[in-house]
Structure formats: C-alpha cells, structure tokens
Design goal:
It is built from 11 helices and 5 strands. It has about 240 residues and is mostly helical. It has 2 domains: about 5-85, Winged helix-like DNA-binding domain superfamily/Winged helix DNA-binding domain (Arc Repressor Mutant, subunit A, Orthogonal Bundle); about 110-220, Winged helix-like DNA-binding domain superfamily/Winged helix DNA-binding domain (Arc Repressor Mutant, subunit A, Orthogonal Bundle). The strands form 2 sheets. The chain has a 3-stranded antiparallel β-sheet. The chain has a two-stranded antiparallel ribbon with strand order 4-5. A hairpin with a 3-residue loop joins strand 2 and strand 3 (about 80-85). It is globular and about 65 Å long.
Length: about 240
C-alpha cells in the first residue's frame, strides 16, 4: 500500500468515527439545511441520513410548520424537490441595518407586470405577454430571464414555433412561495390562457411582424444582496437568505 493510500485510509477512518449515530433525524435535517444557505434536494438529505425521500419530505413539512408562528425570525421554504431556510420579510430592514447590507435593486413596474402575466398564465409566449400588456415586452422579458425569474420551458406548436415561458424555482424562493398554488388571488382578471389563445396570438404575430425573436443578450441587470425574500422588491432568494 502506497503512502497516499495509507493517508486516505486514515482520513476515511476518521470520517467514519465522526459520523455518530443520529439522535434526532429532524434535528439533523434542520442543521444541514440551515448550514447550506441554498436549496438542499430531498434526495441528498435521504442519501446522507439513510432514509427514504418520502420520509424526508414528511419530516421537512413538520419542521416547516414549527417555524410558521411569530416566535421565529426564519422560515423553511419547501419546494417540489428541495427545501431552504430564509429570513422572514418583516425583519429585512433590521437585518440590513445590523449587517450593513445595501438594499437591492427593485424590479421595474414593467418587469413586475410581465412577471405577473407569466406567473398566472404560464406557459406563455412573448406575443401573448405583449397582447395582454398592449406594449412590446422584449426588454422586460429578457431582463427577467437574466435574473433567472422566468425561463423558456418549450415551444408552441405554431408557425415559427415561438418560445413558451414560465417561472422558475428561483421565482418561488424570491417570493417566499412553496408552489404556484400559493400565489395570491388576483382582482384583475387576465384572459383565459388556453392552447387556442396562444396559437391564435402566435399566428397573428407570424402574419404580422414575423416569428417571435429568440431572447437576446441584454444589458444584464443584477441585484445587490438583500437578506430576505421580499415579494415586492427583491429578486434573489439564494443570496438574500441570511
């Protein structure tokens, strides 16, 4: 056995010695997710702890409920395949003041409009977004793509095969949502977004200005770090989490 192999064997043995029996699986999950600072896949937790993914999800849901009351300043966001701790919105001002964090840039009104159209009607084409807003939305769409709040999810089976857009997991993290079902109800009624609507608008776009343009690189607008997931102002939950 070479010297390198002996060193590796000793290191592996020390690592095995450090892996003590888990007294509380939920406490172990909580520690891992808190230390990560980014979404941790349920699959990874299951592999490390040695239990099934379904059981991990049940435990994560129980942990999340314990942080829902006002006694805690953090909350556990649960997604389809991962979970993440983040701070609660109401303490954002105090966190920024204590840590000297400059407030991040806000989404423009046009970007918020586009994001709302996509979130409540996805998947949508850019032509559909333009039709709902009544103005060209190319810049706002590309800006949201740069911020990773929306992304192309496929193409519509129509002339020109325009791209379809939907929100991302990052969108859920930023706005403190576990799923799209948690979106608040809207008072403004947007047009029904069926396949026929998309197809009709796509054909009109094709007959008019030509097929929808591919998203192009825009002047990327990055947001500064902020400590909390603030629905109306912030756009990066991974960096916002404290």
């Amino acid at each position: 056995m070479s010297t390198e192999e002996k060193v590796q064997e000793v290191a592996d043995k020390k690592q095995d010695d450090l892996m003590q029996p888990i007294k509380s699986v939920e406490a172990c999950i909580e520690a891992i997710v808190f230390a990560a600072g980014y979404p941790v896949p349920y699959q990874k937790l299951a592999e490390v702890i040695g239990i099934g993914v379904r059981e991990v999800k049940r435990m994560v849901e129980r942990i999340a409920k314990t942080y829902q009351n006002d006694k805690h300043g953090i909350m556990l966001l649960t997604f389809d395949k991962a979970c993440q701790f983040c701070t609660k919105e109401q303490y954002g001002t105090y966190i920024r003041e204590a840590l000297g964090i400059r407030r991040g840039g806000n989404l423009s009104a046009s970007s918020m409009e586009v994001l709302a159209v996509v979130a409540y009607n996805q998947p949508v084409t850019r032509a559909f977004i333009d039709a709902v807003r009544g103005v060209d939305s190319n810049y706002a769409v590309n800006s949201l793509i740069d911020k990773e709040l929306i992304a192309a999810t496929g193409r519509l089976d129509a002339p020109g095969r325009p791209l379809l857009y939907g929100t991302t997991e990052k969108f859920l993290r930023v706005f403190g949502l576990s799923s799209l079902d948690d979106l608040p109800e809207t008072e403004t009624m947007l047009p029904d977004n069926g396949a026929g609507d998309q197809l009709s608008i796509a054909v009109e776009e094709q007959n008019g200005d030509g097929e929808e343009a591919e998203p192009v690189d825009d002047a990327q607008l990055t947001l500064d770090d902020a400590p909390t997931a603030e629905p109306s102002e912030s756009t990066d939950s991974t960096e916002e989490t404290v």
